[in-house]
């Protein structure tokens, strides 16, 4: 670990391997110890909207120590987060190169957890530069502030979810008799407006002079049934035969309220966290009381 960790670095682990609210609190304390923010000299931290950042303990600590916590809008970190834009991509490439170099020098061996730190340290030292840190803020328009850093093209993918749902879920009825059918009839009937054809019969050659309205070159087939190729209605009918009728998509139901960029250290957000904590406590007390009463009843029955 000495190859990578600086004397003032702080390493934290969790059972799941993912960050949690306890890790974030420890990181905030570490940040405050070195940056030394104060209520009259505030510092701004930009972060994503992960739930581990939105705890009452974190908000209280930030408010007491002159730290403002501002979250990015949801689904925008790939464009707005400096680390994502300039650092993580370079770090991933450097780590892969460092891993390839290690494996070339250690034929037949695989990388284990004991080698990760030394390999990672070489990649980290190579890409962790002041230049990349500054570029991360400028290319996202965070600093210097550039409100026009993104164009309409950057927002184009979001329009995909703005498409309206299918207008109708009704089953499209199929015609009782298709225009032409492939049957055992060997003769083309030119006097009929809708002819019955056997395309395997070479003698059936309708042309412009005949009364057969559907020459073979304009027929589309599926399971022996034919209809006008170019029309949308006939294509819809064929698709219905293959995969069944189209139905309207079921509207998605959000499991939680839509979020937006939020300043976590303002009073309204802090008040919501306090109310949520009180509500959870009440529910917990009710459940605990009900469980104790059930235990008492079972004891009396015995």
UniProtKB/TrEMBL annotation:
It holds the Pfam family DDE_1. GO terms for molecular function: DNA binding. InterPro entries: CenT-Element_Derived, DDE_SF_endonuclease_dom, RNaseH_sf. Gene3D superfamilies: Ribonuclease H-like superfamily/Ribonuclease H (3.30.420.10). Residues 275-302 are annotated as: Disordered. One of its GO terms (cellular component) is nucleus. It comes from the Eukaryota. This is Uncharacterized protein LOC106063716. It comes from Biomphalaria glabrata. The lineage of its organism: Eukaryota, Metazoa, Spiralia, Lophotrochozoa, Mollusca. The gene is LOC106063716.
